[in-house]
Amino acid sequence: MRALIVKSLPDKRREKVVVNDWKEPASPIGNEVLCQAVFTGLTNGTERNQLIGGNYSSSDDRLPTTDGYQNVGRVIQTGPNVTQLQVGDLIYASVNHVERFTIPEDGLLLKLPEDVDPGEAALFGISGVAMHCCRRVDPRIGEKVLIVGQGCIGMFAAQIIYAMGARVTVCDIEESRLEQIRQLGVAEHVLNTSNDGWEKQIQDGEFDAVMDFAGVPEMVTPMIYACKTRGRLLLVAGRFDVNYTFNVGQGKEISILQCSHFTCDDLENLCRLLRQGSVKIAPLIRHRVSVDEAPQIYNWLRDEPMCLLGTVFQWE
Hints:
The protein is an alpha/beta fold. The chain is built from 10 helices and 15 strands.
């Protein structure tokens, strides 16, 4: 069976490659279904974290391993107790980049409606993370929300926060990403914060909430300054530690929020917003390629991550 796996290089760096001899999943039992991958989606932050040995990554002695959590598969076999799914159904499942997988039908998955592009659904994981983060921040209509970092999750968050009725400002240091979010038309302000752009454009006490998808360690205190008194700061991007000036946080009576992954309910609401046009996935897909081309994508992810945005691998 094919799979995308992380392995060590002689120089201690890591790479991700396609293998053809990964262990096959067991036949489905109980309420499990066996699925054949149609598309999988790159999880830019988590998978790069694995490639560079970050806080989410496996230790060297546990390699090779497969990772990721965006797999759109077609049901090819059902267990005896399955009641909701049938052979031929397409599902999004929080599963690694593998050619076949089994999952309980009440697991972290969503049966895809016929009018949803399964290639777009391959990014339901990172957009599901954005949905979960936005619901955690819980913006009120008219509140001002700053979204720091305009990778895929940041762009999905901008769309969802806008759909929830808040006033969206986004920032990044990469102009091509800022141009992409401008085209989506959901942000009142799109700010390039490279060089001294943050100091010139972000005012103290300006935002009800700040959502950090960039993970730059030294930016936590400036983001707290950007919050209003009793504002919320959501920290998402992978990091080992969080350091900030305590007195600044105390003076602001800041709420620092974290969240973990997403739920089936997040996926259902994401799918609803996609179908009604409030969230768009297709414009964020920069590469839609055969799984055989994945190793080059992962070299870019490790060494030149800014050249990527949404990436979908085709398995059939």
